Amino acid sequence: xxKRMDEIMIEIPDVEKPDPNAAAAVQExxxxxFGEMSTLNNYLYQSFNFRSKDKLKPFYDLVMSITAxxxxxVELVSHAVNKCLRGSTAYKEPDxxxxxxxKDARLSYHFLAxxxxxxxxxxxxxxxxxxxxxxxxxxxxxxxxxxxxxxGARTHKMKVYEMTDHPAxxxxxxxxxxRGGVHVVAYAKALEIATGVNVTKLVPIxxxxxxxxxxxxxxEEKGVHTKLYTWSDNDFSSIDQIWKGTHPEDGLPLEVIxxxxxxxxxxxxxxxxxxxxxGISAEEFKEIAKRLKMAGNxxx
Length: 300
Hints:
single chain, 300 residues, mainly alpha, Ferritin, two-stranded antiparallel ribbon, 45% helix
């Protein structure tokens, strides 16, 4: 089962800087082949189909806990896309072409079908596909795939960071560089325990430290790259048999934390009348409020 909180992992800057093309670039980190939809669903189905989970519990616990974090990453990237899109258009009467400003946006689907919100697509508008899921059933093969997947995701994050200076995009990408780096090292350590091969000697891939990115360095200074969460109040604690020792890049001690990190409130998305979203007028809102009060037997 999953437990959900009305929070996201970090605070995303609330700036008035609409940039539809930045949003399109960030979409790659959501619905691209190496995006968060792919990492989530790869680990999700590997966890569903895991063989001999009692005998291989530390590996099972690792995949289970990282799966939960990836769900939060899908959520976080989606809100980054939304922040980049916010304010791209303004309300005018239909005959005044209120969406004219975005007709040449690289990814017009944000405006035609998404009411200026994130979609499960890549940066070119291609829908995410389940064909991106790899689950061989072989523990070492799956761990090796996951290591490669996280390295590919890291490469794409670095490129998107270099592609836009939008504060919301950079804040989220910087954080995800750090947390994705945790997953890279975690799978490398798991492979070392499973095979005896010191895969951690390969990191970082690409060979550029997270500390080179301002929005990632600030999290590494806080030790965020050394912590692995169980994302469960009581389960998956045996990941400490894998996530132990020191970080291969800076030698800091690694730490397993039972539970989830503290989050921040999910940002409010204002109405977009020109997109007919949410499509509830002030008068209709009053009627809805009246019906809710009646249903709850609430008196003024």
